[in-house]
Amino acid sequence: MDCNFIGEKIIDYIDGNLSKEDKEKVKCHLEKCPQCNKEYNEIKLTIEKLSEKRNMINTNKEINLKLKKSEIKPIRSIRRTILIAVILTFTLVMTAIAADNFDFLKSWKKQSEVTITAWEKLLDAGVGQKLDISVIDNDIKVTAEGVIADELNTVIFIKVENLKDNLRLSPLVFANQDHDPIKIGGDIENIYTKNNTLTPERQESSSMVAFSSLYTEDENSTRFMINTDTLIGEEGNIDINISNLYTMFNKDEESILDIEGDWNLKIPAKKIKSKSYYPNESIEFHGNKVVIDKITIAPTATNINYRIKNYNEEKKYYINQVRFSIKNKLKKYKYSSLYSKSSLSQNNGYLTTNAGLESLYLEDPKKISLIIDSFEYTTKNREVYDIDVDKLPQTIEYNGNELIIEDIIYNKANTEVILREDSRRNRKYNDSSLEITAKDKAKDLVRMYTEILDFEYRNSKGKVPKELDYYVRSISKLKRLVLKNRDEEPNNDKIIPEKLIIHGQEYTMYPNKKIKIKLK
Question: Where in this chain does the entry annotate a coiled-coil region (predicted)?
Answer without folding.
Answer: none
